[in-house]
Amino acid sequence: MDDPMIEILSEEFHRICLRSAKKGSEPSSTGCEQVDGSTDLDGMNCEANEVQEFSPGQGQVLPILEKVIDLSTTVEELKRQHSILSGEMSGLTTNLFAGTGVINALQHLSEDHERLRLKFLEVSSERKKLYNEVVELKGNIRVFCRCRPLNKDEIGNGLGSVIEFDPSQDHDLQVNCSDSSKKLFKFDRVFKPEDNQEAVFAQTKPVVVSVLDGYNVCIFAYGQTGTGKTFTMEGTEGNRGVNYRTLEELFRIAEDRRGIMKYELSVSILEVYNEKIKDLLVDSSDEPPKKLEIKQAAEGTQEVPGLVEVRVSSTAEVWEILRSGSRARSVGSTSANELSSRSHCLLRVTVKGENLLDGHKTRSHLWMVDLAGSERVGRIDVEGERLKESQFINKSLSALGDVISSLASKTTHIPYRNSKLTHMLQSSLGGDCKTLMLVQVSPSAADLGETLCSLNFASRVRGIENGPARKQADVSELFKYKQMVEKLKQEEKETRKLQDNLQSLQLRLGAREHAFKSLQEKVRDLEQQLAEERKMRLKQESRALTGPSVQSSLPAMKQAPLKSILEKKPPLGPSKMRLPLRRITNIVPSSSPYAAQDAPPTHTFRASSSSSYNKENLPKQSTKSFLRQPRRISIAARPPPGPPTSGTATKQPVQPRRRVSIATLRPEPSMHAASTPLHMQSSVRDTRPARYSRLFSPMPGYTTPIAARSSSSKFMGSPNNNAQPGSWKPRHPTVIALQRKSLVWSPLKLRGMMMNNNVRRCY
Ligand SMILES: Nc1ncnc2c1ncn2[C@@H]1O[C@H](COP(=O)(O)OP(=O)(O)OP(=O)(O)O)[C@@H](O)[C@H]1O
Fold this sequence. Notes:
By secondary structure, the chain is of the alpha/beta class. Helix content is 49%, strand content 11%. It has helices at 4-22, 41-58, 63-138, 152-156, 197-208, 229-233, 242-256, 315-327, 385-408, 420-424, 448-466, 468-546, 548-553, 556-568, 581-586, 593-598, 620-628, 677-684, 690-695, 705-709, 733-740, 747-762; strands spanning 141-147, 163-164, 172-176, 182-186, 189-191, 217-223, 261-273, 276-279, 295-296, 302-303, 310-312, 331-332, 340-341, 344-355, 361-370, 434-441. The strands form four sheets. Strands 1, 5, 6, 7, 8, 11, 14, 15 and 16 form a nine-stranded mixed sheet that branches. A three-stranded antiparallel sheet has the order 2-3-4, covered by helices on one side. β12 (331-332) and β13 (340-341) form a beta hairpin. α2 (41-58) packs antiparallel against α3 (63-138). It starts with a helix and ends with a helix. The structure holds adenosine-5'-triphosphate. Adenosine-5'-triphosphate binds at residues 148-149, 223, 225-231, 337, 340-341, 372-373, 440.
């Protein structure tokens, strides 16, 4: 039993029962007492029945029983309430699960919200970018032309319109000049006299609303006096102009973007009159006007400290402010316009924007300028103060023209500071800023000159940006790129050439390395061969020396020193200790089978002291000359023709071998022609001075191998066979170079060559 109330009641009932039992009745007979002695609500029911049973028996209901009955009813009621509450409780528990679903849904929603917010930010920045691009494509400096209708006076004077419009063209207008020629002008947009303020603003709107995206914008109306500049910019009550419509549009867009962007718009109106700045929102009737100056702010923008800035939040207040500013403007009467604006009127709208989604803040300016009349001084009859005004107006307008021209032609210096007007507009002219020029013209034939002036000026501004000047800028860029391309091409060409050169050099190097290797191998082979041959010769010599014939033929006194020398000498071998060739050749016996068979006498070299030479066969002069030869006369010398005589050893002592050299390889004139590479070499080194002169002089009677093949040598610079000694002059550049360069001859090389050509034949 959960309920404590029921428990209390149950106890109470139990007590009553017990008391009744004591009064004479047997409570056990009622059967209400349970075996385990416990009581419950059933027991109560039982009690109630018992009470009812008692009641009739006793004739009246006891107050206690009444109480019990009441209590039972209460219990019943409580039980019912309990079950209801339990039901509610379980219902609440079930609802708790439904709450989780709600939380999940909420979570999903917040995630969606975040995703959409980011997407929106992305899309809005993309829109901003694209919008700006569209404006830029149309031109950051745009020029519109508006022609006012002929006024009553002009019509009354019978003046006709000199301007013609092509109904199908929105960009052209044609001026009929006084000499009946026609001049065509093209602008970004041309408004005919019948075009209303709405039409003009429809085209202006895309430029002005850029201010809400954080861009600085400047619109100005230019033209001669009375052409409708003020009408276009300010308008009238019923025909509101660009100023009011722009602010109206800005408010509309700001309202559209509410919740995403927060904008604050404030307005200032000032005029530049005779190069002085005047705040048109200050009531200067009581006090003299404050002097305002242009100052450069820290962030580089131009500010006018002290200039009134009125916060505007609705179009209703804007109109009033614009009217009051207009009223304060300096006007004067000229012959062209009764209420001519003698100053430049500038309306500045400052827009502070805050992106509520990402907190990004912007501050930009929109300038809407109604310029003073651009007519030349002589055009209107002015004098005194009016003349001075006109001069200031002209000066500042020409400064504006210079600034726009410089901006359009993208020159580095923009002359902003030449006038107060341009200085003030500095941060809203050029760079990322959007500029719109509205050139106002009169259709009247009387204004033709001024109309042409205004149209020419406007065309120049537009033409420089979108026409030839812009093209010129592009051409210069193109030219720069073309030059770069040319340079690159040339560099590529040179690189290719260098690569080719490198490749050929590498090939040549490879070929040289290969040749060098093969030469090295050849030298090694030759050395080996030489060593073997020496070994063999030594064997033969020793055999010859020990042989009886040699012993008998040589006198004992002469054999002894020779023998001793031989014994002292180490055997020839591949080692560094090689015997000099001369020594070996000196002792080669005439009976040597090599000498007799292999080597023809004309080609076999024998040293001058060799015993194997037959002295008789040698011409006297030759022998003498041989004897006169310095010791460096070596193996390369050609022996005179005739068979060598065995056993006739000369008395010339055996000279220790020195450097083998071809330096003494100079055959005697009587020698027969011999063609060896050495001779060839010596023959081409004719003109060398001093000791080389003789060495390289051409050898008369000698024929180079090439020369031997053909009677007239094809080798460039080779000596002519028939040429007189010393008459040959080298012509080949290599020969000339060699003549100039002293050569160092390697004994090893020489030995190899000698062995190849001559020495082998000695055997
Ligand atoms: N497009 C137009 N439609 C109807 N009326 C026009 C139009 N343009 C100008 N006007 C009228 O021509 C007159 C001269 O215009 P406005 O004063 O605007 O010229 P302005 O160029 O501002 O002259 P100033 O330089 O002397 O101030 C005004 O009465 C104006 O209402």
